[in-house]
């Protein structure tokens, strides 16, 4: 006989109560968000970086096609191992609505995904009758400068931040509500944003299966979900080709495991400039172990519900097994997604070196894992225990966020310098300060405002200011330039640059300003940098010729050229054998 029981009344089917917190709680939650976007506003520039060029190329090809089928094909066309439909739709909308593609707009939309992720954790705490204020550590973990690479890179922000929101959002609606249609839509968005978004389909299947409990509603949802998963997989892999490139050897399995642990603990990189990999491995080991312990306890506690799932499919299981709470289902699904993603990245990227594994672009996964473990702990322990966990979580997240604005500041400043240098080098290709842009770039994007606007002639005139001493040393594929005396610029200034000038053209290159430790700087950003810098000039980026080297300083918007009496010679332009996708 078919059971007549409905879905049990659990947190999965209850709506959140009124907000458990005052307006002050929301103000405090917003402070890390406002600081994050304030810093972003200062240093973000509208310049394409790597894969961003592929989005501009997409617009060009999209406009050339007249047939609707061809335009749809371009939306779904493979990019590396991904189907970046979401990125392309946002790009197309930005261009159609504003008349130009602006990479700052892409960054902003991608960064707003973090706001959605924070709102998701707030909703969980409200459903679990915990104060909204308890989400403050989550806000500090998500909104800090350790995310600098994604937050200042259009495509990366859209892809890496958004896919986490889509997957965790889908798991939330599957665990806490009966709105499986919303979960299905978010799962499709995840699939069409990044390759690891495909993980939502098996995870969602498991969560729905664990909630069947004899309910025809959940069973029908599971069947629809399975059909959608099959459709998504078929569409994703139709015409799929293995991306070209130079995949290096992974090395021993121990190296993959170390990189997997480092990936999950990469938030520790921001705590110190030395032993970053070791610290990331240690933190990752602790987080992975804690996650596995939580999973093991949960599987054992709800083993009866898990073991009766096959019987529920046959509608032959007797009794009413213990219902798995929504917070546990959400934790299981989210933890599995984060650990699966880190395992895939470690398996496919270990050969490139451990430094890539703990790079900023992957930080969102380590930080989300920290936020997930903290939130799950808060809702699992008693109210007294949750208060203690809140205090500890607040102290740790405040330390991490605060240090990030110091330890990642040099990378943020260099990134802005590098992008603006690239823009100059792309648009000034002759012996005179004449702007030269190709027709595609001119049609689809505007140049970013830069410190050299109106001062380009300075880079081509004779330098009559006092000379600076440079040391020039060969490195693989180029030269390392160092200086010990050039004063540090103010944080609001564009910074110092190295200029290479030949009879044919001028190049500018960003520098790494010398810095002292956070404690030596007394935790003050304006005291972090000291006199002197280093810079790398890669000869594949230069035309053949002999180049005189200069130091370009900028103060209060004024660019000044200093001679160095040093030069470098590039015999031939070398080609990069690595196949690019832009």
Descriptive overview:
The chain has 582 residues and is an alpha+beta fold. The chain contains 21 helices and 8 strands. The strands form 2 sheets. The chain has a 4-stranded antiparallel beta sheet with strand order 1-2-6-5. Strand 7 and strand 8 form a beta hairpin. The longest helix has 26 residues, at 276-301. The chain is globular. The chain starts with 22 loop residues before the first helix and ends in a 12-residue tail after the last strand. Residues 1-13 and 576-582 have low confidence and may be disordered.
Relevant terms:
582 residues; alpha+beta; disordered N terminus; disordered C terminus
- The number of helices is 21
Number of strands: 8
- The proportion of residues in beta strands is 5-15%
3D shape: globular
What percentage of residues falls in helices of 4 or more residues?
A: 40-55%
What does the average pLDDT come to?
91
Instruction: Round the Cα radius of gyration to an integer and report it.
Output: 26 Å
Largest β sheet strand count, sense and barrel closure: 4 strands, antiparallel
> How far is the N terminus from the C terminus?
61 Å
Q: From the helix content, strand content and strand pairing, which structural class follows?
A: alpha+beta
